[in-house]
């Protein structure tokens, strides 16, 4: 079974490069302040063995930029620029795909709601909130959309509505999950995945920004794209992080996820180019490191 290696935590690497992301816009603020460092971060992930660059549009939204005094036209241009930067890095690297990140409404709220699904909008409201950015990214030149960190079945249905309106737009969809069976709002993962079962342009459904220990159970329930966080928790008594912080251990776990059926594998928060380098190495070592052909992701 072939595999596609995704990148790791973009914000984590940007912080390692010296960026201060203590901001409601998170990494998206660099689209305004320092776009060059975003391009460098994408290049570092390609150099580490990633097949896919996921854009810095996760927390970019037209309302979010409006709170900074930018016009809707300026906001749309900045969102497009997130794709341009990744495309430039891809061209310089000489390989790879670009996935335009469609972050959840909770990212705009900047209150952690992408891990609870506790929203003040219903399904119709979420369709309206997502639509303009979704359309900008769908027409941006990215190879596909990464609809990611989705915490609820309601937001899943909203995104499915927009995907039905854009049948030529390829996408993967990934949920934030509270355990090995449920997404963050408590809905069974299988129920959320079924929302996209009738949409042929959805190349994979899975999980991200979820503890690695839950990934095997979620793969057993149909997840084929998996890019968890490092799974770290703070051990106050010993003053250390516990989890898959060690890149070699993460790479070993990734090989196990692939053996269980995951096809697209990468990392999310607190994973780095070193983690992705180990994912690539362990998949190659096991003979599973042959990338999914680009045409399968682009729909060519």
UniProtKB/TrEMBL annotation:
Domain of life: Bacteria
Cofactor: Zn(2+)
Signal peptide: none
GO biological process: methionine biosynthetic process; methylation; S-methylmethionine cycle
Binding site for Zn(2+): 209, 268-269
SUPFAM superfamilies on file: Homocysteine S-methyltransferase
Segments forming a coiled coil: none
Hcy-binding domain location: 1-283
Cofactor binding notes: Binds 1 zinc ion per subunit.
InterPro entries: BHMT-like, HCY_dom, HCY_dom_sf, Hcy_S-methyltransferase
Keyword annotations of the record: Metal-binding, Methyltransferase, Transferase, Zinc
GO molecular function, one term: zinc ion binding
Protein name as annotated: S-methylmethionine:homocysteine methyltransferase
Source organism (scientific name): Microbispora oryzae
Encoding gene per record: mmuM
């Amino acid at each position: 079974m072939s595999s596609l290696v995704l990148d790791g935590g973009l914000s984590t690497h940007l912080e390692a490069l010296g960026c201060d992301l203590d901001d409601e816009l998170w990494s998206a603020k660099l689209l305004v302040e320092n776009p060059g460092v975003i391009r460098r971060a994408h290049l570092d992930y390609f150099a580490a063995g990633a097949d896919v660059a996921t854009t810095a549009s996760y927390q970019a939204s037209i309302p979010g930029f409006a709170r900074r005094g930018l016009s809707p036209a300026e906001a749309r241009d900045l969102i497009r620029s997130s794709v341009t930067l990744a495309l430039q890095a891809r061209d310089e690297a000489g390989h790879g795909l670009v996935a335009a990140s469609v972050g959840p409404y909770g990212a705009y709220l900047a209150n952690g709601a992408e891990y609870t699904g506790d929203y003040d909008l219903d399904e119709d409201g979420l369709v309206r909130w997502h639509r303009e950015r979704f359309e900008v990214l769908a027409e941006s030149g990215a190879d596909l959309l990464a609809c990611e960190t989705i915490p609820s079945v309601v937001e899943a249905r909203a995104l499915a509505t927009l995907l039905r309106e854009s049948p030529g737009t390829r996408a993967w969809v990934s949920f934030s999950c509270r355990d090995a069976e449920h997404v963050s709002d408590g809905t069974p993962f299988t129920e959320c995945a079924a929302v996209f079962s009738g949409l042929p342009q959805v190349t994979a459904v899975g999980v991200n920004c979820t503890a690695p220990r839950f990934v095997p159970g979620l793969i057993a329930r149909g997840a084929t794209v998996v890019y968890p966080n490092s799974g770290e928790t703070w051990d106050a008594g010993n003053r250390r992080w516990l989890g898959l912080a060690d890149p070699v251990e993460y790479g070993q776990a990734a090989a196990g996820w692939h053996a269980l059926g995951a096809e697209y594998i990468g990392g999310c928060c607190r994973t780095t180019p070193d983690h992705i380098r180990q994912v690539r190495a362990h998949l190659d070592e096991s003979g599973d490191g042959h990338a999914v052909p680009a045409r399968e992701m682009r729909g060519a």
